[in-house]
Design goal:
The protein is mostly helical. It has seven helices and no strands. Helix 2 packs antiparallel against helix 3 (66-97), helix 4 (105-130) runs antiparallel to helix 5 (137-152) and helix 6 (159-176) packs antiparallel against helix 7. It is globular. The two termini are 30 Å apart.
Length: 206
């Protein structure tokens, strides 16, 4: 057997092992679009914040105002829904193109690993909302989302782990500087998604 045939066979074996242990149907383009949705939502949120006038007069502490918080919360939910729908559609399309079943044991393990921090984070945020701790919602979103990415990275591309770590660091920064929560949220869910989505698209989707 020639050397190039050996390399080709080893490459095929490695690809087969990767397919059986890693979920590789994630679409980088979905990350880019999710980032664009987040930037659009953040732009709308910034417009709301900049035009907001507290009943007690002008204020920079908009994160403490329930009215502006709920408006920002609705925008964030809309961004989440658009991102999830787009991500699912593009992931299923990529799986079909590769002749793979998007629902398999690996994808189940991936979702299970991410579910714990995501559901915990969701409950944590709901508790914070019920107590009126609005300034730290952006921080919680970033931290628990980052933890979910790190947990899920064991079952998909390792690049996801570094995105998760960056999200966690931004969340900690938002915890220290709650007045900059909208900016840091925009950076994490907008700019970082576009950056990492682009990297994954040119690295794995082409």
């Amino acid at each position: 057997m020639q050397e190039k045939d050996v390399y080709a066979e080893l490459s095929s074996i490695r690809d087969l092992m990767e397919r059986s242990s890693k979920f590789i149907s994630l679409s980088g383009l979905s990350g880019v679009l999710a980032g664009i949705y987040a930037l659009a939502g953040a732009g709308l949120g910034y417009k709301l914040v900049s035009n907001f006038q507290s009943p007690s007069g002008p204020t920079d502490n908009y994160v403490f105002e329930p009215v502006i918080f709920w408006q920002l919360f609705i925008i964030a939910i809309a961004v989440l829904v658009f991102s999830l729908v787009t991500g699912c559609w593009l992931t299923m399309r990529k799986a079909r193109e590769k002749g793979q079943n998007v629902w398999n044991p690996v994808s189940h393990r991936l979702l299970s690993a991410m579910a714990v921090p995501l559901f915990t984070g969701g409950l944590f945020i709901l508790i914070m909302i019920s107590k009126g701790d609005y300034p730290y919602i952006a921080s919680a979103c970033l931290i628990f989302y980052g933890l979910a990415l790190v947990a899920g990275s064991h079952y998909t591309y390792t690049d996801i782990k570094w995105l998760g770590i960056c999200e966690i660091l931004l969340g900690l920064a938002a915890l220290i500087l709650p007045a900059y929560g909208l900016i840091l949220w925009t950076t994490g869910f907008g700019l970082l998604h576009i950056l990492y989505g682009s990297i994954m698209h040119f690295k794995y989707d082409r």
